[in-house]
Amino acid sequence: MSTLTNKDRAEVLIQALPYIQKYNGKILVIKYGGNAMINEELQDAVMGDLVLLNLIGVRVVLVHGGGPEISDMLKRVGKETQFVDGLRVTDGETVEIAQMVLAGKINKNLVARITRAGGKSIGLCGMDGGMILADKRDERLGFVGDVKKVDPKPILDMLDMGYIPVIATTGYDMEGNSYNINADTAAAEIATALGAESMISMTDIAGLLEDKDDPSTLISKVYVSDVPALIKKGIISGGMIPKVDCCTYAIRNGVKKVFIIDGRIPHAIIIEVLTDEGIGTMFVQ
User: Is 10 part of a structural domain of the chain?
Assistant: First the structure.
């Protein structure tokens, strides 16, 4: 049973008031994936956070990936997953499966969870309304795309009608080919096109750590000008490099703040957005 008194609850709300005022009417893009997506209890916590933010006037956009579920489906149909430079090799059959899993199963499940949490949501993918125009990144990777252009109008239309857009990261080219797009890349491009106030990338680590094996070495604030030095020191390395590159890209293209937070913590979004302390790493200009 909660030990909070009614006075405590009122105090919590008052302390959140400046942050509610700051984000009211502003766009917040959230990139969602990894372990936080696989765990159903955490999924419900995340969807509850989104509904709460939407109800207090934050214009929330959810951008999701689904790499583990794509791998699982490929395994179930007997197709081996191959990677080049950390990216999935995506032939014609694989991109069909990716589209089915991302724009079908995962996207609609997230929409349903938001509805059960009391919110209004619409599921979209990059092909809807010509939202994400893409081109091929590398012949070796097949149908893995880079974002060429984002048309924000379909997303803004949904926001204006009070919906939470839930976007699967697929795209298309003018020849009608579909592409699987890295969710961090897509989120950064979408946040930029929307002129978002902030972007949050949910991961399965505490944030950017000075010592990758010690969560107590969390770096709470990073200026984008310091990123090259952090890479040189090895503090940013491996799979964190492309993730941080996306954060840097968003900041340099008009997004005011970008956060990397631990999606394994229940209500991590609310803690980051509506409290003084926050929990992850914040990137700023």
Answer: no
